[in-house]
Amino acid sequence: MAQELADKVAIVTGAGRNIGRAIALALAEGGAAVLVNARSNRTEAEAVVREIESSGGRATAHIGDVADAKAVQAMAGQAVRTFGGIDILVNNAALRREKPFAEMDYASWREILDVTLDGAFHCVKACLPALRQSGAGTIVNIGGLSAHTGAANRAHVVTAKAGIVGFTRALAHDLAGDGITVNCVVPGLIGTPRPKDKPEPSHHATHHTLTGEKGRPEDVAAMVRFLCGPAARYINGQAIHANGGAYFGA
Questions:
Q1: Which residue, of 66, 84, 114, 128, has the fewest CB within 10 Å?
Q2: Integer distance in angstroms from the first to the last C-alpha of the chain?
Q3: What is the pTM of this model?
Q4: C-alpha torsion angle, residues 175, 134, 132, 72 (rounded to 10)
Q5: Where does the chain show beta strands of DSSP type E?
Q6: Structural domain for 224, as ranges
Q7: CATH of the domain at 46
Q8: Other C-beta atoms within 10 Å of 184: how many?
């Protein structure tokens, strides 16, 4: 599969750390030029760019909130100016908070949906003209296990991620005529570094992989890379789980 993404241009949102970082590195390893987006942490985004460049790849950083339509338009414009187009969009940016529904105010609800769901809308709208010109465009949305299993204290997150699956299926219909595939990769029980003030999600304690081991960000990134490549053009409108058997379902 080496360099199967040569001459492709990818945007990966929320790519400064964890799964987003792994996706950016995997697409670059496949030969794609990558715009590394981060909401506010320029240090992290530029570190990913340096990793890609140190391996001979091409990358650029963009700092901007995907909930801000103007910032997203600027991001798409930067990718086109720097690399000449956009062939791949990975909507990875998301917020994951926990709060009992009875204590959740509307601002807390909207904060999650603004980034996870509305952010994906803004990114597709901004990138669509370039994706149409690609002739073999790819959109990969990153879902979440709890959207399929449910989870306590996560009504906003579960709703947003379930919406991403619906968005994926609707776009697959709308954009098929433009030669654009749209799929959703659903990570589950992925081991990622977490700040001390942000403990592991509580629903992780009620789900287990078949081997008892958690996955790595690279396991998710490998699936995204495959879906962006020429061998996956017949896969469209799917929610594909990468969870080590922690959940079985459609």
A1: 84
A2: 28
A3: 0.93
A4: 100
A5: 9-12, 33-38, 59-63, 88-91, 138-142, 181-187, 239-242
A6: 9-242
A7: 3.40.50.720
A8: 27
Asked, for residue 176, whether it belongs to a domain, the answer is: yes
Candidates 140, 164, 162, 167; CA nearest to 149 is 162
What is the rounded CA–CA span in Å between residue 69 and residue 180?
A: 22
Q: Provide the edge-to-edge strand list for the sheet that holds 239-242.
A: 59-63, 33-38, 9-12, 88-91, 138-142, 181-187, 239-242
Q: How many domains does the chain have?
A: 1
Distance CA 228, CA 88 (A): 7
Helices vs strands, H then E, count in the chain: 8, 7
What is the C-alpha to C-alpha distance for residues 153 and 201, in angstroms, rounded to an integer?
A: 10
For the stretch 100-140, pLDDT in tens is 999 999 999 999 999 999 999 999 999 999 999 999 999 99
Asked, for residue 158, whether it belongs to a domain, the answer is: yes
Q: Are 29 and 55 in contact (CB under 8 A)?
A: yes
Q: Which two tokens stand for residue 198?
A: 């942000």
